[in-house]
Structure formats: structure tokens, C-alpha cells
Write the C-alpha cells for this entry.
Amino acid sequence: MNTIERLLEFSLPEELEAHEPPEARGLRRDGVRLMVSERATDRISHARFVDLPCFLRPGDLLVANDSATLPAALTARRAEGAEIALHLSTRLPGGLWAAEPRQTAVQTGETLALPGGASATLLAPYADSQRLWIAQLRLPQPWLEYLQQWGRPIAYPYVRGAWPIEMYQTVYAREPGSAEMPSAGRAFTPEVLAALADAGVGFAALTLHTGVASLEAHEPPYEEWYEAPAATAQAVNQAKAAGQRVIAVGTTVVRALESAADFARAQGAKYNVQSGDANSVPAGRGPAAGEPGRVIASRGWTDLVITPERGVRVVDGLLTGFHEPRATHLAMLEAIAGRPHLEKAYAAALKHGYLWHEFGDLHLLV
């Protein structure tokens, strides 16, 4: 039985879906609920996100994804006049995009009319996907300006109402590029960040541009662009060397850090280096081959899927939302926490009425 076939299954009641941002429910960003589950003891605590510093130790390092969310949903018109939603997923080399015509059968070579005199031509299915296509966009202005004028945030049917792009940004977002919000970090506020610093908890950032999450069952995540800067690699390596915990803010950060560790291992093997600076790779240098948990500054496309079989080498804990039944992200959580603890944690989340999805509550797994 493969990993996909044995992913955690449960029934998610509709009332546990977050249908609007917490601000619309009368809460601050940092007022959402926080469930803390401890792997070593199976202890589960219930709090608010503003209490996060109480559950971390001095010397812990939080690593967050500073990718900013794009207004990546466009209204497209087919040749016969029918309107469909086109979701831009990933900006590809050569000015192409991976795009998803939502819930619509389309043809190779079909051209969709977009607002403002733009168009999108569907060239071929992307990576044998059942939903994504390689699209060539013809835009009257630079792509980011165009999306800011004509696009809207990607939203799924469980979200009620239309919310501005600001509702889909983290307070530390920097680099535009994500089709969907790296939502594990949404609850951070300047006040929480200051409290973490006062508590001796470190904070570092990297970038991974997320694609669309609306994949068919059994489709693995597609390649995504990431960049782990030298300062973050150094902070992670120093924390690991000191025996401190590295806690990822979101599954995207796990993917990026573990990709950087894989890159480090590959470079170490390539250059047969036994020591040296593992925070960057100048010509002919790299980390010791096979050194566990060591990362280097790197950038590129990653197709890494974290499974219990692969495990994790860098990450010691995870701050994340609650994931849908049989979601591939659950394999990552199982790799970090183990199946028995994951089952206990999700049973507690369901029992205590935590909210799911990007505007929902959060789970700190340590």
C-alpha cells in the first residue's frame, strides 16, 4: 500500500470549515485558536495564537515563507462566449504559466480571451496533469501590474463572499509569486513577532511560491520555485548545531528546507567535501556529504514530496493549518509526528471544533 492510499481519513463537518477571515468573525488575526500537540507525550493543549510564545523555547527558530499572494484568478471567455475561471498557478521559464481552467474541459491550442484585451493560449497539459495546462499569456502590460488590475484572489466554494487581496497576505509577505496564500503564517501580527523576539525565539524567512491546491486525487504536488537565502541557512545550521528546534511555519517551508538539505547532500557528494561553509556553494565547495539536517543557500525548482518513508532531516516541528481528509500534506505531518500522534491530534481537533482552511485555526506540532 503506497503513501497516498493510507493517508489519514476522517469526516470533516461543514460547520468546521472557515467560511470567512477571522476579522469578519470579530477576531484579530492573532485571535484564531491554536492547538498544540507534543509528539513525545501526546499532550494536547488548547489556546489562542497570541499565546504562541508560551509554547516555544528560547533558542527555537521559526522559519516562515515570505512569498506574497497574487490575485491569480481571472475571468476568461471562450470562443463561443462562455465565461470560465482561469487560475494562474506557477510562472514558468520562458514567460509561460501553469494555469488551471476551472472545472472545464478545454482543447490544446484553445485561446481564451482575458480582461483588458489580454489572452491565454493553452499549449499542452502540464506534466500530465488532469487540470493544469501550460499557457502562453499575451498581456498589454507587465504581468504583475496586469494581475493587480484585473485579477482577484483564488477562492474556493467554502469561502463566502469576495475578500480583497490584503486578506490573503501575511504581515511579512515580500516577494509576489504564490497562487494561494502560505496560510500558516496568516495569524502573525507585529505584536506576536515582538513577543517572540522578547522570548528569545528566532525568526527567519525563505521563499517558496505556492501553486494551486485544487489538484485531482492522487496527483502529487508539482514543481515550485524556492529560494533559501544565506542568512536563513546560517540561522538554521546554527540552531541545529546548538541542539535547538527548527520549526517550519507551513508545509511550504518544510518542502523548501528539506529541498535545501537535499541540495546540500548532493553538492557534498559532487565535490566530496568533508568540511567547510555549508551556507553557500561557491565553485568546488559544499557541505559534508550525507551530513544530516544541514542546509545551504540555494534556489531552484523542487518537486520534493515529504512522506513517512522519506522522513525529515531539518524540521523539528511545524506550525500549520488543519488539512482535509487524504490531503497529501498529511503524509508530511505523519513524517514529522508519526501516524499514532497524528490520529490523536486530528481526533482532538474535530472534537474541540477547530476550523479548517486558510481562514481557520492553527496547529503547532512539536
User: Anything to note?
Assistant: The chain has a mean pLDDT of 90. DSSP finds six helices and 17 strands in the chain.
